[in-house]
């Protein structure tokens, strides 16, 4: 092996080691990357199944070479781990489709709140299934953080939440349940140093799942306008590839409740991005909500220890 190859491998190993020592930071970077999802979905203006399918399908050409390189470096993964990642992708497809439907029925505000109920479901499942009892700090910070999510969503002062509140709430709660299941199952598929491989399997599974859901409910368009396709490609790169690569690498290194909590930074970053891209000026209540979320997450994350 050439000296340059040895140096490159050593540098790569050093980067992975340093990243492994800072899982909270890695998760936060991932949450910031996926914060563009809502804005890009709105700019794409495609249907729920169409958005979910192209978001995942367009990410596959980016993930395949990363997974192949990882396979050569780290070796193959067990069949059970691959099956688990595929199962996670099924729930991710359901999450993506239901989330878009929730936005259409009750608006982005309440859909944001309902979608972030995942942190409650993940914490409860981690306690019941894996004996990961939430810390006292987590229990105290969660109501404050969730109040911040409500404020950031823009619900305060709004007289209505869309034309179909019951359907929207059902879609929103379903989104949270599917999202929680995806996070918990994906973590089970990342028990090895592999990151791109599990994400590739889950993303491919989600693309197929979205295709099936779109075919069943008749809401899939395989030839969206080029303008929409451009925004969906950007969504695939920033969120589905870069963002979830960071998040997937941090999942096995953090307690389940903490990893899901870190994703609540997403609506804060989305607020700033919407102001920058869509000229949606946040209110003082929304800014205050953002401070509550950041403060609460920092209070918990500062004392989070990497999972064994």
TrEMBL record:
InterPro entries: EamA_dom (IPR000620), EmrE-like (IPR037185)
SUPFAM superfamilies associated with the record: Multidrug resistance efflux transporter EmrE
Keyword Membrane among record annotations: yes
Pfam families membership: EamA (PF00892)
Record-level GO cellular component terms: membrane
Transmembrane segments: 24-46, 52-69, 81-102, 108-130, 137-156, 168-186, 198-223, 229-247, 259-278, 284-301
Alphabetized UniProt keyword annotations: Membrane, Transmembrane, Transmembrane helix
Keyword RNA-binding attributed: no
Domain EamA: 24-153, 168-300
Family: Belongs to the EamA transporter family.
UniProt protein name: DMT family transporter
Source organism (scientific name): Candidatus Aeolococcus gillhamiae
């Amino acid at each position: 092996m050439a000296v340059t190859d040895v140096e490159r491998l050593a540098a790569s190993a050093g980067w992975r080691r340093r990243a492994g020592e800072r899982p909270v930071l890695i998760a936060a970077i991932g949450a910031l990357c996926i914060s563009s999802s809502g804005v890009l979905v709105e700019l794409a203006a495609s249907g729920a199944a169409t958005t979910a399918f192209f978001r995942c399908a367009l990410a596959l050409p980016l993930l395949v070479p990363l997974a192949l390189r990882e396979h050569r470096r780290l070796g193959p993964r067990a069949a059970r781990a691959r099956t688990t990642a595929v199962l996670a992708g099924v729930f991710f497809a359901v999450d993506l489709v239901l989330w878009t439907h929730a936005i259409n029925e009750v608006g982005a505000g309440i859909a944001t709140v309902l979608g972030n109920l995942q942190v409650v479901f993940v914490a409860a499942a981690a306690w019941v299934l894996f004996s990961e009892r939430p810390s006292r700090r987590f229990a105290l910070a969660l109501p404050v953080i969730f109040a911040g999510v409500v404020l950031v969503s823009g619900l305060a002062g709004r007289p209505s939440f869309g034309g179909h509140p019951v359907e929207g709430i059902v879609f929103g709660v379903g989104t949270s349940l599917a999202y929680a299941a995806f996070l918990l199952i994906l973590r089970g598929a990342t028990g090895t140093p592999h990151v791109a491989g599990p994400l590739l399997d889950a993303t491919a599974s989600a693309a197929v799942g979205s295709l099936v859901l779109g075919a069943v409910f008749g809401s899939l368009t395989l030839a969206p306008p080029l303008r929409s396709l451009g925004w969906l490609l950007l969504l695939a790169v920033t969120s589905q590839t870069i963002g979830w690569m960071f998040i997937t690498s941090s999942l096995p290194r953090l307690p389940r409740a903490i990893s899901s909590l870190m994703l609540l930074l997403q609506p804060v970053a989305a607020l700033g991005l919407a102001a920058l891209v869509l000229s949606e000026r946040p209110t003082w209540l929304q800014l205050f909500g953002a401070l509550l979320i950041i403060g609460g997450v920092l209070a918990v994350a500062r004392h989070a220890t990497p999972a064994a």
